From TrEMBL, chain A:
<dbReference type="GO" id="GO:0005829">
    <property type="term" value="C:cytosol"/>
</dbReference>
<comment type="similarity">
    <text>Belongs to the P(II) protein family.</text>
</comment>
<dbReference type="GO" id="GO:0005524">
    <property type="term" value="F:ATP binding"/>
</dbReference>
<protein>
    <submittedName>
        <fullName>Nitrogen regulatory protein P-II</fullName>
    </submittedName>
</protein>
<dbReference type="InterPro" id="IPR015867">
    <property type="entry name" value="N-reg_PII/ATP_PRibTrfase_C"/>
</dbReference>
<dbReference type="InterPro" id="IPR017918">
    <property type="entry name" value="N-reg_PII_CS"/>
</dbReference>
<dbReference type="Pfam" id="PF00543">
    <property type="entry name" value="P-II"/>
</dbReference>
<dbReference type="GO" id="GO:0030234">
    <property type="term" value="F:enzyme regulator activity"/>
</dbReference>
<dbReference type="GO" id="GO:0006808">
    <property type="term" value="P:regulation of nitrogen utilization"/>
</dbReference>
From TrEMBL, chain B:
<dbReference type="InterPro" id="IPR024041">
    <property type="entry name" value="NH4_transpt_AmtB-like_dom"/>
</dbReference>
<keyword id="KW-0472">Membrane</keyword>
<feature type="transmembrane region" description="Helical">
    <location>
        <begin position="113"/>
        <end position="139"/>
    </location>
</feature>
<dbReference type="GO" id="GO:0008519">
    <property type="term" value="F:ammonium channel activity"/>
</dbReference>
<feature type="transmembrane region" description="Helical">
    <location>
        <begin position="279"/>
        <end position="296"/>
    </location>
</feature>
<dbReference type="InterPro" id="IPR018047">
    <property type="entry name" value="Ammonium_transpt_CS"/>
</dbReference>
<dbReference type="GO" id="GO:0005886">
    <property type="term" value="C:plasma membrane"/>
</dbReference>
<feature type="transmembrane region" description="Helical">
    <location>
        <begin position="218"/>
        <end position="239"/>
    </location>
</feature>
<dbReference type="InterPro" id="IPR001905">
    <property type="entry name" value="Ammonium_transpt"/>
</dbReference>
Amino acid sequence: MKLVVAIVRPEKVNDVLEALYKAEVRGLTISRVQGHGGETDEVQTYRGTTVKMELHEKVRFEIGVSDSFVAPTVRAIMSAARTGEVGDGKIFVLPVEKVYRIRTGEEDTAAVTPVA
Amino acid sequence: MRNLRLLGALAVGAGSVALAQDPELSAADTAWMLVATGLVLLMTPALAFFYGGLVRSKSALNTMMMSFVALGFVGVAWALVGYSISLSPGGNDFIGDLRFAFLNGVSLENKGAVAAITIPHLLWMAFQGTFCIITAALVSGSIVERMRFPAYLLFMTLWSVAVYAPLAKWVWGGGFLADLGAWDFAGGTVVHINAGISGLVAALVLGTRKDFGRQAILPHNVPFVLLGAALLWFGWFGFNAGSAWGASQSASIAFVNTMLAPAAALVVWALLDLTRTGKVTAVGVATAIVVGLVVITPAAGYVSATSALLMGAIGAFPSYFAMLWRARSKLDDSLDVFAGHGIGGMTGAILTGVFGQKVIAGVEVGYFNGLLAGNPQQVLIQAFAVLIAVGYSALMTFILLKLVGVITPLRASAKDEATGMDVTQHGEEGYTSGEGAILVLESGEPRGKPAAAKS
């Protein structure tokens, strides 16, 4: 099992969700995060106070998948989240030691396989 | 606003010369109109909240700004030229002249206006100006989240002069629609049909938002929508009852009708919601209030309180179903300016011809009899005025948008639209935490590192 962590642009979230759905990846968690990946700073002004937004709004996906699903998941995110400009985000694939499904007590691959 | 056919005839050609028939300046009327003018002006910020709540958070400021800037740009255009070409006694049946340009000759006496008034001419000008401002702001609801702001500013300012002012002349300034006997108490034709049709055309010219029809685009702040609806209703008492131009019985019936018609529309809308989905929605109730207000606007001082209840109830149906249809269509009239103001305005204008009556609650405060009072012809006259307004508004809005489009692009880029109009058009965000923001000093060098995020 792997944990796929992806940081994407907020405006691409719906595209990514759609692509994941088409790739039959079902279980996922998202959260709004702030981060910086080298993209151009955005300048804002409030009554003469000019600021650079160093941290940008991003959305983090966390998806626990069985090994066979890693490639389709990454492909779906990669194609749906890409704009070609700096700031499109990152995908991390992490090893997972153990997974439990709380409701049933199922473990590992059974726990990340969606309920039919 | 009363029909100026008779009153206007007295003033046309007389210019600023005082007429023997001029009524006395009334302190009571002036007091009410001072308040009413402030009330109508409040409707524009109220609309900003109504519209602002309905869009996504990344475009909240942009949407609210579209209403707020009308207070300035349209207000100035009105004082400079708009007032003169819409409501000066000179010119012809289609457009006024420039005698009041730059407010030249608009005095504090109650003389010189196109109508017989009992309040200072200058105050009357300001009262009329608040109508022009809210009408221009109404149009913005159909093109939110995609129009470049500079293009919007130019379009809105030109629109207030080229579309609103002539139409106001035709209906209220002694123009040809007034001569035909079309009645519009507070602006069903000039304000609501006009804004609704312009919005429809603008939505078609600009095209849909990138995400429209592909993903759900939901209101980001429904409490704002309710707040906006509440303040609109409050301001509308000035809009309708102020259109009697005095503290009179006519103002009183308009006031009461402004309370009752939205009430009836709200009840019908809530019941439609309830029977269709099993739930009464907050956005639905807020919308119903506005639709009820739109429907009663042309009739406010011309119909009885019972008729106002009926008009509000009947008026809810066309707009309700138009909105259901619109949401499933390919038309991205984003905030339903057409279904709400266009359809609601047409329903109101026609029903004015049905329910109008001279004697209301025992007093002759109305000006004409409608269908139910034995004058079926009035419905046709009202319908004709609607057609003229629709045609002119659609044609001129189209031409203006094409013209502005030649000068500067109308649409924001797809990337700007996706990022959000607040940041890309205004360099601000509606809801920013300040975390990660670095202060830029005048030297251009950033000071310090981003503040650590709060735990």
